[in-house]
Design goal:
Blueprint (H helix, E strand, L loop, with lengths): L3 E6 L3 H12 L1 H8 L3 E7 L3 H8 L4 E3 L2 H6 L5 E4 L6 H11 L3 E4 L2 H18 L3 E2 L10 H8 L5 E7 L2 H13 L3 H11 L7 H4 L2 H15 L9 E2 L7 H9 L2 E12 L2 E12 L11 E8 L3 E8 L3 H18 L31 E11 L4 H11 L4 E7 L1 H4 L2 E3 L5 E12 L2 E2 H12 L9 E5 L4
Length: 449
């Protein structure tokens, strides 16, 4: 049977990895796919570099639309990234009747509804395993392996840059800014790391997982997004003393009133497997009603790990290329006419979870009683309290009125489950106390039980 022909848009890190792995393992891949898969055309603005990467026998062009217009190309692989030209090219490829493989989580998280609808209308596939967690086959697990389950929740470490930074902060006791510079030097963080450290990249990924898990449209604009830039070394140290580790989590779960969709730092019990995922590795925990809790772990980025996911999509499309479109696995696991608009994303103030609070307070009698009394009055139950004496945290500070030389201490409070809006209101009252000397630190706590 004639090999299926693939056009590659972009031959950067992932593109070159895809080309190399496909060439190296071509016989094994052919045995699995049932026919050969060949990259026969590549588009890249740097044609000389691209030609050097793929060698002779592959047509290299500067214009991506030439790939889409080629009638011999069956699948277009989009590895350009971003929302702009990538969206136009993906929609043009679909309109031309080409199947699409993409690693572009940002594009799908923001414009996925439009793209999947266009693909459904044309009867072509859009595959995106590489868009979430690199080489970990989490999309396939959610779309196919766990299809018998009612998914209850997903929690994942899905950004390697932030996980590396948090691991280094914990291991070496360094502050965020110092570790970020080291991460950039080692190539874990981009020159502009905003999408990673502000949680945007993780939010793109958890948006896609949420849509697949619960059969809802992709709706990145409704996700709560918080990064790690405000985390302090002492909070990581205190969390460790309390039996927790701080991780940037993407969380989506069924809740009263709809679906939670959020990214933020969280305390995770040290005994949980997820808490022990270190460095730039990724991991996703999925809890289904039938299977219970399952864990998916591996490299979340890199040339060949991500290429592994791209090629898995190529194999899937090759197998199903001639199948009736109505009987293929739907893009978001649920058939388009069975997607639910009734499950709303729960506002953050309605989310119920437990919390870590750190209050820098004046070291004087009655402060702890005032703080705990205010929390009790708001109906917030306290799980544990840790106090750090003045000499452990630097001794003296500045009061709200600017006076210096005030003896100070840190109060660390763990709460039981409470509604976020209730805690927000209580924190406003606490912050107004004259004995609270600095902005209160609040980090959510996820038991994952």
């Amino acid at each position: 049977m004639k090999p299926i022909q693939v056009g590659l848009l972009g031959i950067g890190t992932v593109g070159s990895g895809t080309f190399n792995v496909l060439r190296r393992n071509q016989e094994e891949i052919k045995r699995r796919a049932g026919r050969g898969i060949e990259i026969t055309m590549v588009a890249d603005l740097d044609t000389a570099r691209a030609q050097a990467a793929v060698g002779e026998g592959v047509q290299v062009v500067a214009d991506a639309r030439a790939v889409i217009a080629n009638p011999d190309i069956d699948i277009v692989v989009e590895l350009i990234g971003g929302y702009g030209i990538a969206k136009q090219l993906v929609l043009e490829a679909i309109a031309a009747g080409k199947h699409v493989v993409t690693a572009n989580k940002a594009l799908l998280a923001v414009h996925g509804t439009e793209i999947f609808a266009a693909a459904q209308q044309k009867g072509v596939m859009v595959a995106f395993e590489a868009a979430v967690a690199g080489g970990i086959p989490i999309i396939k697990a959610l779309r196919e392996g766990l299809t018998a389950n009612s998914i209850q929740w997903i929690a994942g470490i899905i950004n390697g840059t932030t996980n590396f930074i948090l691991s280094e902060m914990r291991d070496k006791g360094l502050d965020f800014a110092t570790v970020l510079k080291e991460a950039q030097r080692l190539g874990y963080a981009e020159a502009d790391p905003t999408f990673d450290i502000e949680g945007v990249d993780a939010a793109h990924k958890v948006t896609l997982m949420s849509a697949i898990a619960f059969g809802i449209p992709v709706q990145f604009d409704k996700a709560h997004v918080e990064g790690i830039t405000k985390l302090a070394a002492q909070d990581i140290k205190y969390a460790e003393q309390l039996g927790y580790r701080i991780k940037l989590l993407g969380v989506t779960k069924r809740a009263k009133g709809g679906i939670e969709l959020r990214v933020h730092p969280a305390l995770v019990p040290s005994k949980r497997l997820l808490a022990n995922v270190e460095g730039a590795m990724n991991a996703v925990v999925v809890h289904g009603d039938a299977v219970g809790t399952t864990l998916y772990y591996g490299k979340g980025a890199g040339s060949e790990p991500t290429a592994s996911a791209v090629i898995a999509d190529l194999v899937d499309i090759t197998r199903l290329h001639t199948a009736d479109a109505a009987h293929r696995v739907p893009h978001l696991a649920f058939h388009p006419n069975a997607m639910s608009d009734g499950l709303k994303v729960v506002p953050m103030r309605e989310v119920v979870t437990s919390y870590y609070l750190r209050l820098r307070v004046a070291d004087e009698a009655g402060v702890l009683a005032k703080v705990t009394g205010l929390l009790a009055g708001a109906g917030i139950s306290i799980d544990a309290v840790l106090q750090r004496e003045a000499d452990e945290i630097g001794g003296e500070g500045t009061g709200p009125d600017g006076t210096r030389g005030i003896p100070q201490t840190d109060l660390i409070i763990l709460t039981h489950d409470t509604r976020e809006g209730t805690l927000d209101d209580a924190m406003a009252q606490l912050q107004a106390l004259p004995t609270v000397l600095a902005p209160i630190v609040r980090i959510r706590k996820e038991e994952l039980s």
